[in-house]
Amino acid sequence: MKILLFLLTLFFSIFIGAQNTFELVNVKKAVIPFKLINNLIFIPINVNGAELTFMLDTGVAETILFSLDNKEVRLQNIEKIKFSGLGGNVSIDGLKSDRNIAKIGDNIINSSMLLYIVIDEEFNISPHIGIPVNGVIGYHFFKNNPILIDYTSKKITVYQDTDAFQKKVRKFDEFPMSVEKDKPYINADVEMTREKKSSKLLIDLGNSDAIWLFPTLIKDFVYNRPNIEDYLGRGFNGDIYGKRSRIHNFYLGNFKFEKPLTAMPDEYSIQHVNLVNDRKGSVGSEIMRRFSVAFDYKGEKLYLRKNRNFDEPFHFNMSGLDFKQDGLEWQEDRVKIEPKKISEASSEIAVVNNFQYKFTLKPIFSVAGVRKDSPAFIAGLKKDDRVITINGSRTSDMTMEKIMELMKSDEGKNITMVIQRKNKEMTFSFVLEDPIPYQD
User: Residue 1: what pLDDT?
Assistant: First the structure.
């Protein structure tokens, strides 16, 4: 991580202002293309002249920078701080930097961006995403303008003209939404078995799961069976563990989802989270990606219109493997050159078959973790195994998204992996099996 720090003069600080707001310049609306990986949204933001990638996360109030790799960013007005949040530890050290200049495209500008910097280099989601990710952005992206997210076209539209926005969402279903502590909340109906219970949930675009529920905050909570112990993710304070299961149904107004996957973090993982009153959990991107989603933070409204993803089943990673990308390496590819024929004095001369060799930077994937008693665990795979091929295809020609698609594909599917462990190649095979099919 390379960060260049320096202080501005008081005069320049006053001149910049301290609104920390994205403004549209010379346009009534602006379109931002995004990358969608594992249900998560990634957008480009230029910070002080450096091109960075941020995850869009309604579950965070502040803009956070945690990984710069080899990028150089000049950050202004530095202070030391501590972070706390999901995970087991109490806090981690960080920095605060004010009055930075951020641009998204040519027409969206924040001339006084406030950044919080995580200096622990181990806090880095890039290996688990498969692309370099430099930070997360939430409330300050949404707070000033209505925003429409189209998951099918992978485009975000930011509106300055509220009339144009209202015209766009006139055929959407409208929901009341509260913005508390700079985060959006909605009431939804959770049906664990047969009884609907209205539940206040955080709308969390930075959570790739469908639903999170907090058992310790729900009266008379009983885990559905079957359920499994699992690693749920990583927060600012460390790894998050808990159970996964399926619930009977989940409702957003008239929209119904059958047997959605649900994660339930343990009490230890949420002990340092500053929760708003009556919150029971979160609705994540596995639900939200099934809609075109519009946020109006000022009007405290959420608008939903189902898209072509709406009826897709809720697939689980049935292998039990968590993967990470361990950087890139140069690999040699042999490309066959087709023979060419050259006309010469009414005769044709064939050029001899040839091969061209080229070197390409390709990803390296390894096993980040293995769930106990999963098919991969029983087969013998271990953490830190380097994955060479999956079902005969080289992982260096894959993306993280493609690998995860294979692990979620079809129950009963055979998976054969060639891995490297301590410079020795080994082959393992297992069958995908859903450990938490819903049972009435």
Answer: 41
Say if residue 131 is exposed, middle or buried (CB neighbours under 10 Å; 0-12, 13-18, 19+).
middle
Task: Give the Cα separation of 374 and 359 in Å (integer).
Answer: 37
Residue 224 confidence (pLDDT): 82
Give the residues across from 51 on adjacent strands: 46
What's this model's pTM, rounded to 2 decimal places?
Answer: 0.84
H-run or E-run covering 140: helix 139-142
Strands 155-159 and 147-150: antiparallel
- Which residue intervals of 238-340 are DSSP H helices? 285-288
Considering the domain architecture, whether residues 91 and 128 belong to the same structural domain is answered as yes
Please state, rounded to an integer, the average pLDDT across all residues of the chain.
84
pLDDT-derived band at 237, boundaries 50, 70, 90: low
Domain boundaries, position 15: 3-159
Specify whether 11 is located in the same domain as 103: yes
My answer on whether 122 and 56 are in the same domain is yes
The amino acid sitting at 353 is: N
Same domain, 362 and 288: no
